[in-house]
C-alpha cells in the first residue's frame, strides 16, 4: 500500500446488515408465528449439522446491547429485517402488538444511538401459514405482503429512514422453489417462475402501501443480488449462454421493477415450462414504482458457456449456490457453470472485486438517475480465536478493503453509490450452512452468546471514523474493545 489512502464522500453512508431469522432466535416468543425457515431447518438433512434459528445470536433478547455495540462501531446506518410472522403470525390479520413493540424498540434504540434504521420487510421468513396456501407461487401471498407493508409503515413509518421491500428475491424464488436448497425446499421450475412474478408484484404492492401511508416522499428501495457472470469465450454460443443467465437472473427483476416489462428472451426460454399467465393485465404497472435507491448485494462472480456434452450425463454447475440435483437456473438446461479461479472464501465463492466495479458502473450507465447502495458485501472464513483472545481475520479485512476500493473506483467512474453495508454485523445462521459459516465482523460464541470484536470490526470502525480506506495491515495493531455489554466507554 503506497500513497494516501482513498477517501470517501462526506455523505457516504457506512452501515452493517443482518436479517431477522439469522440473528434473532426467540422463535416462539412475542407471539411470533412459525416461518418457512422454522419448518425447513427442522426438517432433517436440510441444514448442515441440523442447525436451526431457534436461538441464533439471541439478538431478540440482546437488542439493546447490540445497538450499543453498533454505536461503539460508529455505524451510521443499520440494515435489519422485520420478521413477517412477528407482525402477523399467520401472514394475515391485525398487527401483533408484541411484534411491533420489538421493532419499535429497536428503531428507537437506533435513533437514540444516532444510527439510521434501514428496514427490510422480507428477508426470507415467510409465515408458514401462507406457504401452506401456496407461498410465493400464489398471487394471494403478494397481496398479503402489500397489507403487511401497510401495517409496518403505519407502526414504524415515522422513524424508519429507508425501506427495503425484498432482499434478494432471486434466492426466494429460485433457491426456494427450483433448486430447493432454501425454504420451502420445492423443486419445480414453473413454480419458481410464478414465485418470481409474485415477488415482483409484492414489491410493487408494498411500495404503493408505504407511499399511501407515508406520502410520496417515503424513501423506498429493493435489494437485488444481481449476478455478474461472464461468457467463458467470445464464441456466439457462449455469449448466448451468458445472455440467457442474465435474463433469468437479473433482467427478470430489473425489467419489471425499473422498466415495466419482462425480457422477451426469458419468456421464450421458459415457454416450455409456463405460459406466464400468472402475469395479469395491469401487474407490470404495479411492479414498476419509482425508487429512492437500488440496493445491490455482491459477493462473487461467475463464468458460463454453452454446454456441448450430453445433457443426460449432467451439466457442470459450479455456481456457488449449493448442492442440489435440481438447478436454480430455470430454463438454462444447457448452460455450464465453470469453476472460478481463486482465491475463494469459506463458501467456495471466488473473490473478484472488479465484478463489483463493473456491476455498479453498468447499473449507473443504465439508470443514471437511480442512486445505488451496496446493501451487503462480506466474506465467510474459518476464523480462529488466538491465544490473546483476538480474531485476526486478515482475509476478511482484505476482502472488505478490496471491495471498498472497488466501490471507490466505481464512484470515480461516475457511479452514484451512496453507501456500504458490511455483511454481517455479527456471526449468524447462514441458511443451509447453519452456524458453520461465519460472516460477522463481530464474533458470536454460540455457547455463551458472547460478542467479540474481530480485527475486521476494529478496522471497519477506523474506516468509518476516518472515512478513508485504512490499510489492511493497520487492523492487527488496533487496541481491542471490550464487549458493549461489559460497559465499554463510548468513543
Ligand atoms: C445473502 C443473504 C444474506 C447472507 C449472505 C451471505 O445472499 O442475503 O442473508 O446469507 O448472502
TrEMBL record:
Keywords: Glycosidase, Hydrolase. The keyword Hydrolase applies. One of its GO terms (biological process) is carbohydrate catabolic process. It comes from the Bacteria. Pfam families: Glyco_hydro_1. GO terms for molecular function: beta-glucosidase activity. InterPro entries: GH, GH_1_N_CS, Glyco_hydro_1. The keyword Coiled coil does not apply. One of its GO terms (cellular component) is cytosol. PANTHER family: GLYCOSYL HYDROLASE (PTHR10353), LP05116P (PTHR10353:SF36). Belongs to the glycosyl hydrolase 1 family. This is Beta-glucosidase. The lineage of its organism: Bacteria, Bacillati, Actinomycetota, Actinomycetes, Micrococcales.
Amino acid at each position: 500500500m503506497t500513497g494516501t489512502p482513498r477517501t470517501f464522500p462526506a455523505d457516504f453512508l457506512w452501515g452493517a446488515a443482518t436479517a431477522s431469522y439469522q440473528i434473532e432466535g426467540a422463535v416462539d416468543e412475542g407471539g411470533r408465528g412459525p416461518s418457512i425457515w422454522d419448518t425447513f431447518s427442522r426438517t432433517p438433512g436440510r441444514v448442515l449439522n441440523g442447525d436451526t434459528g431457534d436461538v441464533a445470536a439471541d439478538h431478540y433478547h440482546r437488542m439493546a446491547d447490540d445497538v450499543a455495540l453498533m454505536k461503539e462501531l460508529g455505524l451510521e446506518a443499520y440494515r435489519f429485517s422485520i420478521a413477517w410472522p412477528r407482525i402477523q403470525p399467520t401472514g394475515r390479520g391485525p398487527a401483533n402488538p408484541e411484534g411491533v413493540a420489538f421493532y419499535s424498540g429497536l428503531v428507537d434504540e437506533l435513533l437514540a444511538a444516532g444510527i439510521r434504521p434501514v428496514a427490510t420487510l422480507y428477508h426470507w421468513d415467510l409465515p408458514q401459514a401462507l406457504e401452506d396456501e401456496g407461498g410465493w407461487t400464489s398471487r394471494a401471498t403478494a397481496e398479503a405482503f402489500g397489507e403487511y407493508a401497510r401495517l409496518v409503515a403505519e407502526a414504524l413509518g415515522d422513524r424508519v429512514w429507508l425501506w427495503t421491500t425484498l432482499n434478494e428475491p432471486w434466492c426466494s424464488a429460485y433457491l426456494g422453489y427450483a433448486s430447493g436448497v432454501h425454504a420451502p425446499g420445492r423443486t419445480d421450475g414453473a413454480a419458481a417462475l410464478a414465485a418470481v412474478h409474485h415477488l415482483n408484484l409484492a414489491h410493487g404492492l408494498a411500495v404503493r402501501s408505504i407511499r399511501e401511508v407515508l406520502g410520496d416522499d417515503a424513501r423506498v428501495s429493493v435489494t437485488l443480488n444481481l449476478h455478474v457472470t461472464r461468457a467463458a469465450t467470445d464464441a456466439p454460443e457462449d455469449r448466448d449462454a451468458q445472455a440467457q443467465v442474465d435474463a433469468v437472473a437479473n433482467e427478470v427483476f430489473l425489467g419489471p421493477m425499473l422498466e415495466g416489462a419482462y425480457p422477451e428472451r426469458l419468456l421464450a426460454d421458459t415457454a416450455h415450462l409456463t405460459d406466464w399467465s400468472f402475469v395479469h393485465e395491469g401487474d407490470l404497472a404495479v411492479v414498476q414504482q419509482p425508487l429512492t435507491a437500488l440496493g445491490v448485494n455482491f459477493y462473487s462472480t461467475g463464468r458460463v458457456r454453452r454446454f456441448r456434452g450430453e445433457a443426460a450425463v449432467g451439466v457442470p454447475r459450479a455456481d456457488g449456490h449449493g448442492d442440489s440435483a435440481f438447478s436454480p437456473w430455470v430454463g438454462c438446461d444447457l448452460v455450464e457453470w465453470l469453476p472460478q479461479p481463486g482465491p475463494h472464501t469459506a463458501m467456495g465463492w471466488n473473490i473478484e472485486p472488479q465484478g463489483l466495479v463493473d456491476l455498479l458502473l453498468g447499473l449507473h450507465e443504465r439508470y443514471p438517475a437511480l442512486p445505488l447502495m451496496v446493501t451487503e458485501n462480506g466474506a465467510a472464513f474459518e476464523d480462529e480465536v488466538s491465544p490473546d483472545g483476538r480474531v485476526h481475520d486478515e482475509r476478511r479485512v482484505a476482502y472488505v478493503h478490496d471491495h471498498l476500493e472497488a466501490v471507490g473506483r466505481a464512484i470515480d467512474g461516475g457511479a452514484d453509490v451512496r453507501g456500504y453495508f458490511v455483511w454481517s454485523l455479527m456471526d449468524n445462521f447462514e441458511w443451509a450452512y447453519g452456524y458453520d459459516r461465519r460472516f460477522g465482523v463481530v464474533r458470536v460464541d454460540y455457547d455463551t452468546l458472547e460478542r467479540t470484536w474481530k480485527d475486521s470490526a476494529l478496522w471497519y470502525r477506523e474506516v468509518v471514523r476516518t472515512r478513508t480506506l485504512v490499510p489492511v495491515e493497520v487492523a492487527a495493531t488496533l487496541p481491542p474493545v471490550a464487549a458493549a455489554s461489559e460497559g465499554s466507554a463510548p468513543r
